[in-house]
Each structure stands twice: as structure tokens, then as C-alpha cells.
Amino acid sequence: MNTTLKDINTGSISEMEELPVPQNIKISNITCDSFRICWDMEPRGKERITHYFIDLNKKENKNSNKFKHKDVPTKLVAKAVPLPMTVRGHWFLSPRTEYTVAVQTASKQTDGDYAISQWSEIIEFCTADYSTVHLNQLMQKAEVIAGRMLRFSVFYRNQNKEYFDHAREAQDNRMLQSVKDNSGSHGSPISGKLEGLFFSCNTEFNTGKPPQDSPYGRHRFEVKAETLFNPDTNLYFGDFYCMYTAYHFVILVLAPKGSAGDDFCKQRLPALDIADNRFLTCKQGEAGDGGLVFHHAQDVILEVIYTEPVDLASGTVAEISGHQLMSMSTVNAKKDPSCKTCNISVGR
After folding, report:
1. Considering the chain, what percentage of its residues have pLDDT values greater than 90?
2. What is the pTM of this model?
3. In whole numbers, what is the pLDDT of the chain averaged over residues?
4. Which tops the pLDDT comparison, 71 or 336?
5. What's the rounded mean pLDDT across residues 234-239?
6. How far apart are CA 103 and CA 190, in angstroms?
7. What is the mean pLDDT of residues 322-339?
């Protein structure tokens, strides 16, 4: 049963005949901003219970910055409704975050004070990733600013020379997938889980070609777009974020149909029509042409994850003429939680 929660008033709480202490606490139905809680109680004094006090805290991170302000503990009070009850609130629950929870029973007295039980044992749990419902909300916000579509013909991936040498010598001339880092939205279901290779496809509006600068290395692998993106590929929306800057990033996933990456994404990410979406399209050319035509959104920076290994023989590697702009790197980049353009109301 859902229940309305409010912060506990730190006013007077009285001691009187003991109330039953919650035991065997169970947490279930966990989402990115809610959970269901229930427990057992001895029958003694049970009829006097009018409220439940819930002490909810983010679990202490041993690696946290000791100079940073600690999160204020969230103490909630709920009317004694039948269990289980759902605790819901994006203002105190964040996705993919570890919490501790303990419960007291309480009896409100005629003078406004509370008689309380002892605290229960402390239980730990972790909130979930964004669901496809939340990702669809993010996607709709991204569509608003995506802008017009520009034509492109290649995907490209920048790294240092040693990366490509290693691929040739130790990986059978292939670039192999790695697990996506923690950049972007904190609730993203692909961070730390999906394996793939990051590619770019954005072009300069005045040349129609990839930019000559990159934050990831001076050597660039280029591959024809149809090698990675074609009717045998599924396309998914992965994330939408910014890094305290005016420009925004959209993460998309390209997964060959039936691949392990495709199976992973089908269960977690919104699927896009490859020929009709606001970010990245692959369409059949006009009659007689027979080739595929590709377009990308102009006003967002696309980060495209391809879920399978890529053979260097399928493209070319060359040194770029521009600079390595390290400040543009999104490796483990944290999302701006205050940006109204790319945040939804379910934590960050």
C-alpha cells in the first residue's frame, strides 16, 4: 500500500510502555526512486501503534571525500497502514545508490508526543537503474534539442598510437569491447554493464566531415557507416546528459540483431526506428541508387556504442591534423544535476 511520508518533527518524544520492535525487515519491488518495505511484529502492544518512523541513510562510502558535506539523514514518518507499504520520493532516493534503513513503531499521545519502540536492525539495499519509462522521458527531452539532421558517411574512433598497435599485435587486428564507464546519468542501466566500442559520427557543418580535433588521441580509425549501421542492426537510446556546459551528449547503442549486446539492450533500453528518429538514421537511397543514406542530429554530440569487436581491416587508421583537446573528454564525466534540459525528476 502506498503511504504519504513527511519529515519527522524533531519535537518531544516520550518514553512509556514498550511498543513492539519491527523484526525481519524485508525490502522488495525496488526501483530507482521507490521501494516496498514490510516487517514482522510481536502482537503485544500492536494495537497502540499509530505511526512508523523510518530512518533512511545513504550507505557510507569509504572512498568518499572526507571534506565533503555529509548527506543529511532522511527520517520519515508514516501513518500505521497495513504492510507492506511503498516508500517513494525522488527528492531523497537516487538511482543505483546504496542505502541503510531502520524502523521504529510509535504511538501518538493526546498531548502530541510520541511513545516509541527501539530501532529495528539496520537493513541495506541498493536502488535500481532507470527503467525504460524513465529513459523514454530522457529521450523525449533530448529530442527537443536534437536539431536538424546532417548527412554523414563514416563512424570514427580516436585513440593513441599504442592502442592500435596493441590491437594489431595482441588482439588479432581487432578492437575489442570494454565495459562502459560511469559517465552520464547516475541511473543509466548501461554504465558499468554494457560492453562495446565508442564511436563518433558528428561532422562539421561547414565541411560535412569529421572534426580534426579529438580528446581521445591523435590517431583515428574510420569505417564506412554501413559497416556498423545497416538493416541488420538494432538501434537503442542509452542516455542524455551534459557536463556543466552548454552542449549536450546523447548516447546511442548499435547492436547487430541477435548479438549478446542486442539481447542486453532489448531488456533495458528504448528501441529506435533506424529510419525514423531524431538522432541517427539509416535509410535506403532514392530509387536507382540502391545505397544507404545516413544522417545525424546537428545540435547534440552523439556517442555511439557498437557492441561487437571491429576488425581494423574494415576501415583505415590515420593521424589527425588537429589537437588532442583533453578538456572535451567524457571519460567518467559526471552529469550536471542542476541542468533543467537533461534531468528528469527521478534522481540523477
Report:
1. 62
2. 0.82
3. 86
4. 336
5. 98
6. 33
7. 69
Give the Å distances, CA to CA, from 17 to 14, 23, 116, 118, 246: 10, 18, 9, 11, 60
- The CA distances from residue 99 to 20, 43, 59, 286, in Å, are 24, 29, 5, 56
Produce one character per residue of 47-78: b if its CB has 16 or more CB atoms within 10 Å, e if not: ebbebbbbbbbbeeeeeeeeeeeeeeebbbbb
**Residue 147: left (phi > 0), alpha (psi -120 to 50), or beta?**
left
Query: 88 pLDDT exceeds 90?
Result: no
149's CB contacts (< 8 A; 6+ apart) are 278, 281, 295, 296, 297, 298
On the question of pLDDT at 65 being above 50, the answer is no
Closest by CA to 212, choosing from 60, 95, 292, 319, is 319
With contact defined as beta carbons under 8 Å apart, do 145 and 300 qualify? yes
Cα 240 to Cα 128, 186, 268, distances in angstroms: 18, 11, 15
SS (H, E, C) 271-326: EECCCCCCCEEEEECCCCCCCEEEEEECCCEEEEEECCCEEHHHCEEEECCCCECH
Please tell me the predicted confidence (pLDDT) of residue 298.
94
Residues contacting residue 215 through CB under 8 Å, at least 6 positions apart: 158, 324, 325, 326, 327, 328, 329, 330
Q: Check residues 322 and 113 and name the one with the higher pLDDT.
A: 113
Q: What is the residue type of 318? A: A
